[in-house]
Design goal:
By secondary structure, the protein is an alpha+beta fold. It has two domains: about 80 residues, no CATH class; about 100 residues. A hairpin with an 8-residue loop joins strand 5 and strand 6. It is globular, with a radius of gyration of 17 Å.
Amino acid sequence: MCEQIKIANGVMKASLEGIQDIVGENGLKSILNYGHLEKYTSTLPPQNDELEIPLEDLQGLYSSLRELFGDKGADGIRLRVGKENARRALENRPFMAKSIKMATRLIPENKKIGLALQKFSEDFQKNVPSRSGAVKVELREEDDCFLLINGANFESEDVSSNTPVCKITLGILQYVVEWISGNPHEVKEIECRAAGGSADVFRISKAH
């Protein structure tokens, strides 16, 4: 029997709180009931990085969101949840956030973005483990952009779509890049496993 893959408590907590902020307490309850995740109705996971939440619970949460609100409605919610997740993560780790800001204070904007994306990649790999256990996030720098490549993102796992579906990751990246640089940058998912790609690929423009 395969070992159950587990993710960080804080990832699930941020997702639940982010969804509730958008759809309200009753809306969240409806989503949890639909996905047979009633155990999160009255008790949220603690805010820490302990790997105690089954990955299938997080996937079930967002699958239920998609089935109840449709692709278009769920995409908008997930994008907002991604931004909220990033905001909460930085707010809950003030020492880390301050350290990153101080370390990048005197370097060019593109270097700041590269360092922030690298930190995001490391945290994602630690807090949302891959089914295979392999390293799954790669960061490449091009002349005019960064490419973040995720070969095992939970958002596109076992999903079929004509368009990219990884809106949570997209929202997180949009928030992180603007937070570190002080300017909004274009962030697009240019390849997605749900749409037939070999990996989920995000393009982060260096120009703002």
